[in-house]
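hey
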């Protein structure tokens, strides 16, 4: 009998890493709705190659191209032919998730919540729909504090476990060496309006002694490149396996998103020893200790962001590095696994 049937979107690397750790302690079956997506930061972002657990796939192709009716038919068969204690659905945004929580008893239904209070409506029709979904859920695995605030705003009063993350990052070995501050900033992620890159570019255009490297693709790339000064470099998509060199070659990681459910790249940057400048609207902002291992910024306050970036000198940078060294990604990940046990 399975402890959990976990229904999730696609086999992104950080989810696969998490499920591999869970499978060491639990008997799990992971059901991937699709094998790939049209929206990913690199070619090796998704893969089934490293799955050390039982899994099934509802659609072998892009998530956006699946036929929902066929997915639900396959899901129905899985539920009928499997013995399991609980199901864990990866959100409330898909018909497959709705079918699952109404097909099973409430006592069996668990949900992973990766939406925060900032990107989810808590009143009106949208909130009512979420409340109906939650009425069928007996336990929620919430990523962090901003996610817990959303549950409270929606009046959810049942069992909640804080996971402190959305998955487990890759942790390639690297040689730790002393860092010097060369005013080299790095961004990794989608090039979309919600990431607030236009504001950051306007700031760095005026900070000629700083450089900003932007890694990723998206609909705003051409517009952002045209708006950028010579101290801003666009590298396009970089494979996960090659990101290590980028983290080690830069000094400070910056994530200025207007909203961000979590921001796994914050964990990646900390793992490689980088101080962080992160929006306080990001879920992962809770692992940044303001002024200790990085800074929290208001994404709408350009003057504040400019002052924060400008305030970092060699002495402050070394203090931030000391703060980063005190953060243990392994401890955080262990707590994430424990939340499911």
């Amino acid at each position: 009998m399975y402890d959990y049937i976990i229904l999730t979107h696609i086999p992104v690397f950080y989810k696969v890493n998490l499920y591999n750790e869970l499978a060491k302690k639990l008997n799990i079956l992971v059901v991937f709705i699709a094998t790939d997506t049209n929206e990913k930061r690199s070619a090796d972002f998704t893969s089934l190659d490293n799955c050390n657990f039982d899994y099934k796939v509802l659609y072998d192709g892009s998530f956006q191209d699946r036929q929902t009716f066929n997915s639900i038919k396959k899901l129905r068969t899985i539920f009928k032919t499997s013995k399991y204690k609980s199901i864990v659905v990866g959100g409330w945004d898909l018909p497959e998730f709705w079918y699952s929580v109404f097909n099973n008893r409430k006592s069996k239904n668990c949900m992973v919540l990766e939406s925060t209070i900032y990107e989810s409506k808590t009143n009106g029709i949208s909130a009512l729909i979420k409340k109906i979904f939650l009425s069928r859920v007996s336990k929620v695995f919430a990523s962090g504090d901003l996610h817990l605030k959303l549950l409270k705003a929606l009046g959810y009063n049942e069992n909640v476990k804080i996971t402190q993350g959305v998955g487990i990052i890759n942790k390639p070995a690297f040689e730790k060496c002393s860092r010097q501050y060369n005013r080299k900033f790095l961004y990794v992620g989608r090039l979309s309006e919600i990431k607030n890159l236009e504001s950051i570019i306007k700031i760095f255009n005026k900070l000629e002694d700083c450089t900003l490297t932007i890694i990723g693709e998206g609909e705003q790339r051409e517009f952002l490149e045209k708006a950028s000064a010579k101290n801003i470099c666009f590298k396009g998509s970089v494979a996960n396996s090659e990101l290590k060199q980028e983290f080690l070659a830069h000094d400070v990681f910056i994530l200025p998103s207007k909203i961000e459910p979590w921001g796994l790249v914050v964990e990646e940057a900390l793992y490689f020893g980088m101080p962080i400048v992160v929006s306080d609207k990001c879920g992962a902002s809770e692992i940044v200790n303001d002024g200790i291992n990085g800074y929290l910024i208001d994404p709408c306050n350009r003057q504040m962001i400019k002052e924060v970036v400008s305030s970092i000198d060699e002495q402050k940078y070394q203090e931030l590095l000391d703060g980063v060294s005190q953060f243990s990604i392994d401890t955080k990940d262990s707590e994430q696994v424990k939340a499911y046990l």
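The first helix runs from residue 13 to 23. The mean pLDDT is 96.
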